[in-house]
Amino acid sequence: MQTRRTFLVSTVAAGAVLAAPAIVRAKPFDNVTLTLNGFGGDFDRIMKETVADPLKAETGLDVTYAPGGSSAAVAKTIATPDNPPFDIVLCDSPSVPELIKADMIDPVTPDKVPNVANLLPGLPEFGQHGVPFMISSSVITYNTEETQTPIASYADLARPDLEGRVALFNLENTGGVLYLLAMAEANGGGIDNIDPAFAALERIKPNIVTLTSSTVSLIQLFEQREATAGALWNGRVFAMQNAGQPMAMVAPSEGIYSLMSYYNPIKGTKHPEAVATYLNKALSDEAIGAIANFFRYGPTTTVDLPKAVADTIITFGPEGRAKIKTLDWTKIAEKRSGWIERFNRTMA
Amino acid sequence: MNSSSVAARGTVRVGPSGRYAWIALTAPLAIVLLLFLVVPILSLLRASFFEGDRSFNASGVSLEHYLRFLTDSYYLNVMLDTLGYGLATALLCLVLGFPTGYALARAKPHWRRWGLIIIILPLTLSLVIVVFGWLVVLGRQGLVNQVLVFTGLIDKPIRLLFNSPAVIIVLAQQFLPFMVLSVMSVVGHIDPTLEQASANLRANRWTTFRKVIVPLSLPGILSGLTLVFVLSVSAFITPRLIGGHRVQMLGSLIYEQIIVLLNWPFGAAMSAVLFTVTLTITLIVNKWLKSHPG
């Protein structure tokens, strides 16, 4: 016969059993949300699948990606130092010096983010500031159905047979800065002597259909055959090839000029531990490998890739990375304003 | 008849407290405008006087950015081009928008309602989508080229993008509703019997249009022209994507300075100059409208 005491004991026990899953489910970052500026499209999808979703399951962390231009994200962050809109800002090499100069980002160390140890030696360009996660390179691309003679260099874009067929980035897009530096160094100049690059641009100018800062716009120009040759990011050319476009990808003879994309933890975030956890996951083989596999952008860690994938990434492995030209982005950031002004005047 | 009997017949009497009710009614909007329009404009003006090319940790007062802009022929030429594109767009909108606005004002309410929906619908679309749509329509493989080739007007596709006419056409498409609505609202108040009286006096349609409709519609025409002009000169997405590097407008340069180069003081100075020019034009038009109320 059940007594009052046994009834109470069994009720409490049953309640504990029912509550146990909830107690077990309590995770370190429940009710914590991190906001990042995404790169949009497939990039955000891959980040969600390989970083945000696993983190949600493991730690309860929510991640919001706000797609938009990374330059705008950097500008917004610098504009609101007391209440930055992002916990982590994703941007490319040229923007990191601005964030450092504005004292907006925290350094990243292996004790907080253990996977930093997986970064390829000598790769980070700004010491402990910024975590690089992919390497994008400027390559030549051209429509093989409409271009009889292969194009091997930026200088070839001045060929008479390409009149009215060339589309390029302007210097607002870092892709434009990369081909400008390539043309400068190939003609005896460099960051401190950009004149040879502008002389080379003058030769290409008659062939130029248009110049744009938008990667999507440039891709559209090639897909609609508004332009049939130019320079673009290697990953984007790969994506066009995958979509069936007859676009060739050529490592220019001037050399491989690349930039890296970085995660930058913003100072004053309310959730520093969640940020460190996110960065660690974002440097996992799954996340870095997925980006490399989908876009064919160069990985920044020691991740192993299938040979079929590795062979199509121009900056993969010691040999691939040896081809990358080293650039002083801090110096470029100082010079860029003058270059853009000169570019606008020269190319108009 | 005393005042209480007037009130009893439905006329609202304005007491001392009611006299100031407008303050309470307009306060919410005034506060919003103050916080999100006036304060940002003042901040922008302050930034334009900072020394150096960064606004964080900046201080001092300098005219260097205004001098840089106003003494450089490149920037002044871009400014003039911008005003020119604004004027051309406003005139194109007038040519296209006046007949539409007039027709809608004279249409039956049912048709006017549908016409308004069609006119306003494009404003609900994202500008970026509209511009990318135009890139497809005006492209070498786009609709316009296909029609021209099909009708035999051209042998092979021609380049319709990346030039001034393309920018003006796309800007006009974006801002046409503002002209149509301005014209329609004024024409709607013109008594149709005036046009009939003109016809009775043996004026033909052209004379009626010139001597009756246009003078009476002038306030709507001018406010439409001003609206389209101000919106056009501040455009930056359309000239960047449709015009390419050959069409340079001040909005693009401001965007470049603020977002890409983070040179907010110079970007702010350019914005202040553009703001002053457009404000001056608006004030002149408003003054003219007050002195010629129609």
TrEMBL record, chain A:
One of its GO terms (cellular component) is outer membrane-bounded periplasmic space. CDD domains: PBP2_polyamine_RpCGA009. Residues 1-26 form the signal peptide. The keyword Signal applies. GO terms for biological process: thiamine transport. PANTHER family: ABC TRANSPORTER SUBSTRATE-BINDING PROTEIN, THIAMINE-BINDING PERIPLASMIC PROTEIN-RELATED. This is ABC transporter substrate-binding protein. It comes from Rhodobium orientis.
Automatic annotation (TrEMBL), chain B:
It is a multi-pass membrane protein. It is found in: Cell membrane. PROSITE patterns: ABC_TM1. Coiled coil: none annotated. One of its GO terms (cellular component) is plasma membrane. Residues 79-285 form the ABC transmembrane type-1 domain. CDD domains: TM_PBP2. The chain crosses the membrane at residues 20-45, 83-104, 116-137, 166-191, 212-238, 258-285. Keywords: Cell membrane, Membrane, Transmembrane, Transmembrane helix, Transport. GO terms for biological process: transmembrane transport. InterPro entries: MetI-like, MetI-like_sf. It comes from the Bacteria. Belongs to the binding-protein-dependent transport system permease family. CysTW subfamily. This is ABC transmembrane type-1 domain-containing protein. It comes from Rhodobium orientis.
